[in-house]
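Renewal narrative, Specific Aim 1. Our central claim is that a sequence can be written position by position from structural information alone. The example that follows is taken directly from our test logs and has not been curated for this report. It begins with the structure tokens describing the chain, in the order in which they were read.
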């Protein structure tokens, strides 16, 4: 029984590319034959890491300078062993602020970008086309989620802010795709089609080899049966 299932998986015709929106969405979180995630999923992870790094620098560097400056202004009356000791103390104060405020900005920016990219990518994959409305909807949803704790007024403000943010961001991404000469959907569809055609050719090749091997395997069995029948008649 196990051999039959293995043979069916090995010699069965390859599955066609996904045709519905839900099939394309589920494919986003599945690995391929090479154990790799789709490019869209990898881009979401990369953008989250980049956004976290940018947010950390955005929040940490000003905090580092302000904390260092404030420490120097407060420590005029304090005694230090030497100038190096004073500089190290100032740098430690700045570093604490860099870590504290950098992390505070980092996770917020990373979360915002991750939710925005996940929703916009999901809408584009489901609809199989990239439009400004996808990014506006993703921005509105992300902004509303981040301002949800402020009540109805904050929810409305976040909704509007997110939509306004999503429109130019989506326009920029669409412009970059047009300059590249191929949208993500066109590239993904082409890659799916090429991969399916390649698998189909390989399957037909294996099927042809199997049809040739089956008669060759049956011939020795027929010859042995013929020889056994001759020996029986001779006795």
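The sequence written for that structure reads:
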């Amino acid at each position: 029984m196990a051999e039959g299932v293995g043979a069916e998986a090995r010699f069965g015709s390859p599955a066609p590319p996904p045709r519905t929106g839900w099939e394309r969405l589920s494919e986003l979180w599945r690995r391929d034959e090479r154990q790799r995630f789709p490019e869209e999923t990898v881009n979401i992870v990369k953008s989250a890491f980049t956004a976290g790094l940018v947010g950390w620098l955005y929040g940490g560097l000003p905090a580092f300078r302000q904390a260092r400056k404030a420490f120097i202004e407060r420590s005029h009356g304090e005694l230090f062993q030497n100038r190096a000791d004073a500089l190290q103390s100032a740098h430690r104060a700045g570093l604490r602020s860099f870590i504290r405020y950098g992390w505070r900005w980092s996770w917020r920016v990373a979360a915002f970008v991750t939710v925005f990219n996940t929703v916009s990518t999901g809408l584009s994959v489901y609809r199989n086309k990239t439009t400004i409305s996808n990014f506006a909807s993703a921005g509105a949803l992300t902004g509303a989620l981040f301002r949800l704790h402020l009540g109805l007024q904050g929810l409305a403000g976040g909704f509007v802010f997110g939509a306004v943010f999503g429109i130019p961001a989506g326009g920029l991404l669409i412009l970059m795709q047009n300059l590249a000469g191929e949208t993500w959907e066109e590239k993904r569809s082409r890659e799916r089609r090429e991969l399916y055609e390649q698998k189909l050719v390989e399957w037909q090749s294996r099927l042809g080899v199997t049809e040739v091997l089956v008669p060759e395997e049956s011939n020795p069995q027929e010859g042995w049966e013929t020889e056994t029948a001759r020996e029986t008649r001779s006795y």
